[in-house]
Amino acid sequence: MSQKFDVIVIGAGPGGYVAAIRAAQLGLKTACVEKWVDDKGAAVLGGTCLNVGCIPSKALLESTHKFHEMAHDAKVHGIEASDVQMDVKQMVARKNTIVKNLTGGITGLFKANGVTLLAGMGKLLANKQVEVTAADGTAAVYDAENVILASGSVPVEIPPAPLTEGLILDNEGALNIDETPKRLGVIGAGVIGLEMGSVWARLGSEVTVLEAMDSFLALADQDVAKEAAKLFKKQGLDIKLSARCTGTEIIDGKEVKVKYTDSEGDKELIVDKLIVAVGRRPQTQGLLAGDSGVKLDERGFIFVDESCRTGVPGVYAIGDSVRGPMLAHKASEEGIMVADIIAGHKAAMNYDVIPNIIYTFPELAWVGKTEQELKAEGVKIKVGKFPFAASGRAMASNATDGFVKIIADETTDRILGVHMVGAIASELIAQGAIAMEFCSSAEDLQLTVFAHPTVSEAVHEAALAVDNHAIHIANRKKR
After folding, report:
1. Cross-strand bridge partners of residue 364
2. 469 is known as an active-site residue
3. Beta-carbon count within 10 A of 468 CB
4. Average pLDDT, the chain
5. How confident is the model over 190-225, as pLDDT tens digits?
6. 447 among the known binding-site residues?
7. Looking at 77, 452, 469, 472, which residue is catalytic?
8. Are 308 and 232 found together in one domain?
9. Residue percentage of the chain with pLDDT more than 70
10. What is the pLDDT of residue 1?
């Protein structure tokens, strides 16, 4: 007789491991299946985010930002620093240590909360049974009252640029480059492309980004996109729009010839490394038996309702394998919601208030709708902006690029979107998310006391600017 659990979670990424811990905390007998193993065959938890995504990329971004500051901005503070060098191998080693500490921490959390780890490839069978195939090929079947599918996503590969070890890389390979390339090519000007391009541009690489779309950061508010494009150009990122890769060729095993076409015709680019960052797709291949009852759409996403229920009672799906943005925090909150629902609690998630962040320098962050979306919907709005150049704390930090932009409904004053470009936008955007979650008006933020001097005062001033009441900039007429 197979072992039975109240909940089996397939996938131990930021959606799956959080769901498993929450379910166990709520008194449910819980198991979590994970196929990822290290070079010693031990299960590795945390999924893409902790191992080859969010965390390691931020470690590299932080290291290179500190290097760039010391090499280029120290003098403005009165600090004399000459011949600043970056030990790239040490930088990568530090990144690996951080990843190991965090993934090991999840293993400890599983033990502390009583979550059973099932190492192997998980597959949903009929009647809520889960087959787990270990690395050695042996398989076991477990029964579950409830199953949570949290299989995540994988990088999209493109035929014109097949991955080639050491030369043409996906996001995982890009995180393990151990020597600064003289020339770096990036296909895709999305989150991963911009972040990885920034890492190596700071260390001296000549970075060229090829973006097939004819607009830059089309999903962002266009004020943010325009400001970011200007700043990235200033930093040396050569972003070519309407540039579609048509082929690649390895030269002498050392270089990559990238063929692409743009509005002017066919062109070529020679680089030492090429990073392919054109997006991600759901990792649902092999996840479902034919008679599992769970349905996929034409792109491989699992069909779910607003509560992440599939068409099979007791089977849920969360994270990158379902509709919505492919964000770790979205997956985690879905995991908590589903665990609460399974335990019999009322739970819901506000999909209108999910922050988006790009961790370049300055950072880009937004929550809610863009000015372009609201105008297209015919919503009458009022907009307030405040530049960090007018912030005393930002001046003291030598980080005056960017602004905070707040959009409110002209009739109700309710905040509909908050958009930022700035040094710590990733931290400040939570203020916008909290305000929107509580259905705040611009006036609510106007009446809130913000500490001085802080960078957060820019949020306060942007809220004041919505009604032309900003104190530390000259107010303009409403648009």
Report:
1. 358, 421
2. no
3. 12
4. 97
5. 999 999 999 999 999 999 999 999 999 999 999 999
6. no
7. 452
8. no
9. 99
10. 61
User: Same domain, yes or no, for 146 and 182?
Assistant: no
Secondary structure of residue 132 in the 3-state scheme = strand
Please check whether residue 34 is in contact with residue 19, taking contact to mean a CB–CB distance below 8 angstroms. Answer: no
State yes or no: 167 annotated in a binding site. no
**CATH number for the domain including 429?**
3.30.390.30
The CATH number linked to 28 is 3.50.50.60
Q: Compute the distance between CA of residue 39 and CA of residue 295 in angstroms, rounded to an integer.
A: 34
**Residue for token digits 């919907």?**
377
**Cβ-proximal residues to 407 (8 Å cutoff; 6+ apart), any chain:** 368, 369, 370, 371, 374, 381, 382, 383, 415, 416, 417, 418, 419
Q: Which of 234, 95, 250 is nearest to 185 (CA)?
A: 250
Amino acid 102 reads L
Total domain count, the chain: 3
pLDDT tens for 132-182 read 999 999 999 999 999 999 999 999 999 999 999 999 999 999 999 999 999
> Is 91 labeled as ligand-binding?
no
Q: Tell me whether residue 122 is annotated as binding.
A: yes
pLDDT in tens, 13-53: 999 999 999 999 999 999 999 999 988 888 899 999 999 99
Domain membership flag for residue 40: yes
327 labeled binding residue: yes
| Structure confidence by residue, pLDDT tens digits, 346-396 | 999 999 999 999 999 999 999 999 999 999 999 999 999 999 999 999 999
**Domain extent at residue 368:** 356-466
For the packed helices 191-202 and 54-68, what is the interaxial angle rounded to 10 degrees?
30
Three-state DSSP class for 159? coil
- Dihedral sign for Cα atoms in the order 31, 37, 38, 41: positive
Backbone angles phi and psi of 59, in degrees to 5 = -65, -45
CA distances from 430 to 55, 368, 370 (A): 19, 12, 17
Helix (H), strand (E) at residue 226? helix 222-234
Q: Is 326 annotated as a binding residue?
A: yes
> Do 323 and 364 share a structural domain?
no
Quick: pLDDT tens for 426-460: 999 999 999 999 999 999 999 999 999 999 999 99
**Annotation-wise, does 417 bind a ligand?**
no
